[in-house]
Design brief:
The protein is an alpha+beta fold and about 270 residues long. The strands form three sheets. The chain has a five-stranded mixed barrel with strand order 1-2-3-6-5. A five-stranded mixed β-barrel has the order 8-9-10-12-11. A two-stranded antiparallel ribbon has the order 4-7. α1 packs across α2 and α3 packs parallel to α4. The protein is globular, with a radius of gyration of 19 Å. About 35% of the residues are buried.
Length: about 270
């Protein structure tokens, strides 16, 4: 089956998921991309947050972390296939072409292009997926141009209990079983600063690290005020045991933060 036929099929599948998820009609309307950018042809939708373009570029969507598809014998995470199919449908509805706006940091350590991606009408694809509960809103400095509208889109889905928000995905540090993306809630027990950056200690086996190069993104007084407070934090967890980097007295799990939007206080 050729790519145009696949796009047509994806569009029909995507329409089913929109109906099934009962998506609210209103979005925050992220700003349109610069008019100087030209559309690029999509060769393949790799997963819910990654595209392969006809020019060979692999594009990782900024502001969105979709559930992981099953690979290397592991099962797909909940809504991973739905996110991939919905992204296929959005690309299909844009005639297989998208507008790619690279971030201030244009590449990741895998060599992928980091970009906000828009359809032919200037609508942000990340925003649409977030509003349907098909991914988590994330921000990694310095790529935060669409932070506010993407946060609003996630709130829409979370309030309505759409997609992955049908069941609360929040964990405590004690419930962590493996490395990877996680959404967690815990109490801040202390904050320290040294040559390695700023360390936010949580109740349980998890510590947050802000590298020195990202400290200017954070308000020191606001961070100190977190001690004793409940916070919700999201990001990619590293297992220090598997990396052979766990020292006596250290928390097993480490999460790096580069932007304060990944850390929110809770009532």
């Amino acid at each position: 089956m050729g790519f145009p036929q696949l796009l047509k099929k994806a569009s029909l599948v995507g329409a089913f998921f929109v109906s099934a998820l009962a998506v609210p009609p209103a979005l925050a309307a992220c700003p349109a991309p610069p008019s100087s950018l030209q559309p690029s042809e999509v060769r393949r939708v790799v997963d819910g947050d990654t595209l392969r373009l006809a020019d060979g570029r692999s594009v990782r969507l900024i502001g969105l972390n979709a559930p992981e598809l099953g690979r290397e014998g592991r099962s797909a995470e909940a809504f991973a296939v739905a996110a991939q199919r919905r992204l296929q449908a959005l690309v299909a509805a844009s005639d297989g072409r998208v507008i790619v706006e690279p971030g201030r940091q244009a590449k990741d350590h895998y060599g992928r292009t980091l970009a906000n991606v828009f359809d032919s009408h200037g609508r942000n694809l990340e925003e649409q997926l977030l509003a349907e509960g098909l991914g988590y809103q994330v921000v990694i400095a310095p790529n935060d141009r669409l932070l506010l509208c993407q946060q609003a889109a996630e709130r829409t889905a979370r309030t309505a209990g759409l997609g992955l928000w049908r069941q609360a995905p929040l964990l405590t540090p004690a419930q962590l079983k493996s490395a990877g993306f996680a959404l967690l809630r815990a109490r801040v027990s202390g904050i320290e600063r040294n040559r390695g950056g700023l360390w936010i200690e949580l109740d349980g086996p998890l510590v947050l690290r802000v590298e020195p190069k990202w400290l200017d993104q954070f308000d020191p007084a606001a961070l100190q005020a977190l001690v004793g407070r409940q916070v919700e934090v999201r990001g990619w967890v590293i297992d220090r045991v598997r990396r052979g980097a766990l020292r006596p007295g250290q928390a097993r799990w480490l999460m790096a933060l580069s932007h304060p939007a990944m850390l929110q206080t809770q009532p």
